[in-house]
Structure formats: structure tokens, C-alpha cells
Sequence to fold (333 residues):
Amino acid sequence: HDLVAFHITCRAEVVGEAIDLLTDFVGRPKLDQEELDRERGVVIQEIARADDQPSVVAEHLIDRAAFGEHPLGRPVLGPEEHLRAFSRDGIMEFRRRQWAGSRGGAFLVGNLADVPENQELAETFGRFPSIKPDGGFEAAPEFQPQTLVEQRDSNQSHLRISYRPAIDPRDVQHRAALAVYGTLLGGSMGSRLFDEIREQRGLAYSVYSVDHSFADVPILQLSAGLESGKCGEAYSRMRAIVDELRTDGPREEEVERARAYAAGRRVLAFENTNAVARHAATQTVVYGQEVDPDAAIAVLDAVTFDQVAEVARGISEDASVACVGPHEVSEFS
Fold:
């Protein structure tokens, strides 16, 4: 929701040709009408495919339950009627309004020995039009949690629960503490959710949590895929685990374990140049902060028990809920 990225992966020896290709079709696209119409049809098929997948529908529902009609509450692909209605002129006009260079960046990661000289780079990256930012963004709305259910006659249900953490999403230490908390809660096979919901009680075949910070709002989302008859008990216990962490706090040993896991996961992720590039883009475009992969690892290593406990206390008591399956809204009150 916060970022649009165009990327290319290539051998180091041909990086100049890759830059030439990518900047050409991103910086000065032709946007042929026939090609646009073909792609419109493909995206409409993608929307239909998403609507056939209960787990994807659950993701769309929880976004709407958490953010309402705000842009963060809408699916990225948009509604089919919009895709059928917009024109090439409308796309070009949007691009002229919003695709300002000051809102973006270019990121090269990997073996840079064959990157062209500055003069050649200036020519290729100079293909982007000079656009002044025109228009702002809608600030994230106040948290007004809802419960949304899409009824489907099935034996399986897809449950989502979304909380609002009380952290500053632009504070790198706050984001790191939330990442460790999220790992402790449901980010690994040793987490509280996995251990109790799946291993001890056998309530779900899939259960996990995801933490994320948009430019101006953080979220904590719990997810489960499970037999429909077990959905009510799983929902109650998942909510109770978050409540217990809020009131009783985490244990020292599980914070240590989660911190090591979160930092190690990031170390392994950064072995991939695409992951480093995504990190660089997010740091720059979304948060306006420096790009330093080593610092991103170090800040996780430096998270303290007290910081994680503070995150736990700051998780909202209210939560948005979304479920796809044979259920009623009243089951989640």
C-alpha cells in the first residue's frame, strides 16, 4: 500500500543493459492502448482468482475491518468496475500528478563493479520526467474496529484478528521491538500461538502473527486456517494469549529466543540482494531513513526485555476481526 516498485535481477556483467531497459519502460512508458486493454483483462482475471481463494478474501476483509473505506482498507488491485472504467488518459494524468522523483528512489544492490559511469547513469535515470509533488496522502484513520464475516458453506474457515500497537512507526527502535514481540507471539514454531493453538490444542493447521508498520500506522495481525467447528475456541484463545501478554508480560527466556530468531531471520534474508533492495526502498521512501543493512540487524540485537514488555502492554484491547466460513458475526463478540 505504501510503495510501488519496479525491479530487475541480472548478472553483474550486464547491469548497464538492465538499467537501460528498466529506466526506459518505467521512465518513459509507451502505454499502448491495445496492450493496456489486454492487461486490464488479465488483472480482472486476477481479481476473480482472488475472490475464489478464501484466504485472500480474509486478507481483504481484515483490511476493511481495520481501516474502513480508507485507502489502507482497499485491495491493491481495486474493484473490477474501476478497472473497466479508467482510460489511458486517466492513467497518464495520475502519473503526471503523483510520480514525483522526490517521492521515490533507485537502488542497486550486489556486485557493482560493472555499474556504468556517472554520466551514463545520469542519462538513463534522467528519463524520468521532472514532476513536482501534487497532492498529499490520507492519514491513517483512528482505530474503529469492526467485525466482518463472509459466509461460505465449507468445512474450513480463515480467521484474521487485527490490533493497533501503541508504537511510533517512524521510530526504528519501536519497529524493532514490535518485530521481536511479533516473533514471540506468532512468528516461529516456538511462538505462543503456534505452541498453544496448534501443538497443544490442535485447533488450527496454520496459525501465525504478522507485524507491519505503514508510513504512519502500525498493525499486528493474527491469522489462522482451521476446521470451522474449532473456530470459536481458537478465536477465544488467540485473543486471550494477547491479553495475557498485555497484563502479565513476556518471559525473559522467550524474549531472548524471539530476539535471536528475528535477528537471524533478517541476516538470512539479507543474503538475497532483492531483500536488501526492498529494505533500502522501504527505509528511504516510506520512512525517510538511512539505508544500512548492518544497522537493521544490530537494532534487533539491541532490543531489550523492557522494550518488548512495553510493546505488549501497548497492544490495543479492541481488535478488528474478519472470517471467511460458515459463521455469524455474533460468534466473535
User: Anything to note?
Assistant: The chain is about 50% helix and 10% strand. The chain has a mean pLDDT of 94.
